[in-house]
Amino acid sequence: MSEKRQPEPEHLEVGSYLKPITEDFFIDVDAHIRLMKEKLSFYKDHNGYKKFQWACIYKVPEKLRKVNEDAYTPRVVSLGPYHRGRPHLEAMEPYKWRCLDRYLTRSSVNLDMVAELAILKYQRKARRNYQDSFDNISVQDFSQTIMLDCIFIIELFLENVLEVSPEGGQPNAKIFDDPWIRHDILHDMILLQNQVPFEILADLFSKCFEANTSADVVYGLLGTSFRNVGKVSSPKGRLELTRSASELHDAGLKVNKETETLFRNLIAFEQCRRDEIQYITSYIILMDSLINTPKDVKLLVSCGVIESLLEDNELVLNLFNNLPKETVIDNKDFHFANVCKDLNKYCKDYQHQWKAAWLKLKQILRFYNLRCDNLRNMWTTISVVAASILLVLTVIQSVCSVLQLWIQFFFVNELTTRIPR
Q1: What pLDDT is attached to residue 318?
Q2: Distance between CA atoms of 80 and 115, rounded to whole angstroms?
Q3: Which ranges in 171-258 belong to alpha helices (H)?
Q4: Which residues contact 344 (CB under 8 A, 6 or more apart)?
């Protein structure tokens, strides 16, 4: 028995209402086209080309996140919508509401005005700044998140950095008094996905003062706060400096335990914003090419290029060798392309190759002479010790000889006096 052959799909014509696709299946072509047009318009205007043009707070690419998840994850506080609702960050939420109360006490606006600004003005601007659209978050929740997080940052710096308390109010708990909390909060505030729009932050900050406060004031405040990120002394004992004053003077790149987090987030930012020269990524790639052994790290530290606060040079080596993983950069975006080109040209020059060979030979000879000097010094020491021992023995022999002569003379003289004449 032959199988029943299915009819071929008919040609679809735009403008028809219902079109048969098979014997028992029909499609509303007009409705489908309208839906596609609506989606195209939505993603073009809301989450497509125009949005990406305005976006400045990006989501970390998955390939970078997999290299080191902790470098992009906040420890104590969520800022912005990306990490909103994470269980381990909920402990800081009550403090944000206390900061809102303090902010309303010191500012020229009330809660109604701030809430209205957040819903009608701030949330629309904020959505434009984030790479993701966050359609799953309602207008009310999104605006509240942005408002609370911005005011949290403002109050954090006003009370803990500038030490400015509202008139007639009791001082709030200074969470920066705890060095570990301060360290973790500043760590969380440098993460790429843990940001709030600066324009909204500056606008809310200006409402704390009668005169309009310029954005430069906020920039300066943030710069002062982040200057010593990662420099937290251990409470287990006194702080000990592991470098001399000359080594710390005019040092270049400072390397500590937070350096990896800072650079990874800066690299992720540049990897997302591909229309500009990638200065940080270029610098890390250059350092990675210069550092291949702990000896290279030691040389850069001695020259003042790196100030290392880590335990040993091996950690610095691993840091710079791992930072460029999964990063992509074009030659036109590599800031030090000409420097590397000139350096390779310099090294390929025969005159400089002979100089390098001669310097290497001198190092070998110096090492050989040092070993010879050490060997000569060893034999000299042995000779001195042997001569000293011989001198002591000679002195002992001389003393014994003198004593022997004296005894002989004494007995001879005594015998002479006793013999009768």
Answers
A1: 92
A2: 17
A3: 179-189, 198-206, 215-225, 245-248
A4: none
314-to-287, 297, 311, 325 alpha-carbon distances in Å: 15, 8, 9, 18
Contact 336, 328 (CB under 8 A): no
**DSSP-assigned beta bridge partners for residue 253:** 306
Reduced to 3 states (helix: H, G, I; strand: E, B; else coil), residue 138 is coil
**pLDDT of the residue at 11:** 43
What is the pLDDT at residue 328?
A: 85
Q: How would you class 183 by CB atoms within 10 Å of its CB: exposed for 0-12, middle for 13-18, buried for 19 or more?
A: buried
Cα dihedral 217, 190, 128, 58 in deg (nearest 10): 150
- Interatomic CA distance for residues 87 and 287, integer angstroms: 38
> How much is the mean pLDDT over the chain?
76
pTM for this entry:
0.68
Position 124: which residue type? R
Residues in CB range of 134: below 8 A, 6 or more apart: 81, 127, 142
How far does Cα 127 stand from its chain's mean position?
A: 27
Q: Roughly how many angstroms between the first and final C-alpha of the chain, as a whole number?
A: 168
Total residues found in the chain within this entry: 421
Instruction: Encode pLDDT of 353-409 as tens digits.
Output: 666 666 666 666 665 565 555 555 666 667 666 666 766 777 787 777 767 767 766
Q: Which residue has the higher pLDDT, 392 or 242?
A: 392
